Amino acid sequence: QTEKLELDIQGMTCSACSTRIQKVLSKMKGVQEASINLTTETGTLQYEPGIVSVEEIIEKIKKLGYDAEIKK
Ligand code: 9UX
């Protein structure tokens, strides 16, 4: 069972930033798919809530040096 997660991501200034986040998140256990958009500063993910939490995903982004929150 996967769920969709939409995030607002702050701090990306070049396309290598978004590629980097996308790569790291895609490798996380429980994340099926991650698509990071530099222009709109958003990320769309498909993840398995039973395996990985939203908090863990956001923490991972913060550790890379960016800020993220659930899109409102
Ligand atoms: Mo280039 Mo994006 O250093 O952080 S990857 S600005």
TrEMBL record:
Subcellular location: Cell membrane
Residue ranges occupied by any HMA domain in the UniProt entry: 3-69
Protein name stated in the entry: Copper-exporting P-type ATPase
Lineage per the UniProt record: Bacteria, Bacillati, Bacillota, Bacilli, Bacillales
Top-rank taxon, per record: Bacteria
Function: Involved in copper export.
Family stated for the protein in its record: Belongs to the cation transport ATPase (P-type) (TC 3.A.3) family. Type IB subfamily.
